[in-house]
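Quick one, C-alpha cells below. Sequence please?
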C-alpha cells in the first residue's frame, strides 16, 4: 500500500509541484493566523476566504444544486413529512463529533463516502438530487455527509466550531416553524422555507428551535468552492488516514 507522501507525490506529478502547497502549510501551521471565531477548528486551509456566510448562488459550481433543491421543495417536504409520520424508525439521534442529542434527529442520504441506499425509498426526490447533482458533479465532500436535520421543539445546538474550513455547509430549509434561527460568526439568520443558506462551519455557530413543532433542514457538506481538485484529493487522503489511525488507538 502506498504511503500518504507517495500518494501526494503522484498528485504533484499530475497537477504540478505547487499544487499541494496550501495543504502542506495547513499541516505545518507554525503560528499561521486564523479568524478569532475559528479558534475551535482543527485545520484551517490557508487562502480560504474568512467569511462566515456565503451567497448560495454566487458560485457556479454550487448554484445548480441550490436551484435543484429549491425547485423541488414541495415534493421534498411532502416526502419528508410522510416518512416522519409513517416510518419514525428511519430517523436516529444525530451523532455530531462533539455530542449526541436525543432532540436532534437525522435521516441520512449520503454517509461514509457513499449514498445511503435506503434513502432512495424514504426520500426519493432529495436522494435523486443529491445523487445526480452533488455526487455526480463531485460537489459533496466524501469525508462528510448529507442528511435531513430535524431539531425538536426546545432543542438547542450549543456554540461550536466544526473541524475544518475546506468544506462548506449548505442548509436547505424544508420545514421551518416560527422561533428558529442559526448564528454563524456572530451573525444570526432565519431559515426561509424552500430556500438555501450557505456558511463556513469552521466559524463558531449555534442553532435553536424555540417553536412548537420540529424544524427540518436538508444539510449537504460540500467542498469549499475555493479548494482545488488536487487539494480535494490530498485532503481526502489525509483525513481518511487520520481517522484510520484514531480508530486503531
Amino acid at each position: 500500500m502506498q504511503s500518504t507522501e507517495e500518494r501526494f507525490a503522484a498528485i504533484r506529478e499530475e497537477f504540478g509541484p505547487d499544487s499541494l502547497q496550501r495543504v502542506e502549510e495547513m499541516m505545518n501551521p507554525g503560528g499561521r493566523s486564523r479568524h478569532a471565531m475559528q479558534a475551535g477548528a482543527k485545520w484551517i486551509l490557508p487562502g480560504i476566504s474568512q467569511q462566515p456566510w456565503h451567497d448560495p448562488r454566487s458560485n457556479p459550481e454550487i448554484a445548480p444544486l441550490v436551484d435543484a433543491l429549491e425547485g423541488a421543495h414541495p415534493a421534498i417536504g411532502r416526502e419528508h413529512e410522510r416518512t416522519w409520520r409513517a416510518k419514525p424508525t428511519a430517523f436516529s439521534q444525530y451523532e455530531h463529533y462533539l455530542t449526541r442529542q436525543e432532540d436532534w434527529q437525522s435521516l441520512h442520504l449520503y454517509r461514509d463516502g457513499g449514498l445511503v441506499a435506503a434513502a432512495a425509498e424514504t426520500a426519493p426526490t432529495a436522494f435523486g438530487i443529491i445523487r445526480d447533482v452533488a455526487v455526480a458533479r463531485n460537489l459533496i465532500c466524501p469525508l462528510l455527509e448529507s442528511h435531513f436535520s430535524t431539531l425538536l421543539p426546545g432543542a438547542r445546538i450549543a456554540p461550536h466550531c466544526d473541524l475544518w474550513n475546506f468544506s462548506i455547509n449548505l442548509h436547505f430549509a424544508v420545514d421551518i416553524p416560527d422561533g428558529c434561527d442559526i448564528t454563524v460568526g456572530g451573525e444570526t439568520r432565519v431559515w426561509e422555507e424552500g430556500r438555501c443558506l450557505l456558511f463556513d462551519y469552521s466559524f463558531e455557530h449555534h442553532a435553536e428551535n424555540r417553536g412548537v413543532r420540529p424544524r427540518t433542514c436538508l444539510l449537504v457538506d460540500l467542498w469549499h468552492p475555493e479548494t482545488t481538485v488536487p487539494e480535494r484529493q490530498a485532503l481526502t487522503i489525509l483525513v481518511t488516514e487520520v481517522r484510520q489511525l484514531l480508530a486503531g488507538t
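Helices lie at 4-15, 21-27, 63-71, 73-86, 119-122, 124-135, 229-247. The mean pLDDT is 93.
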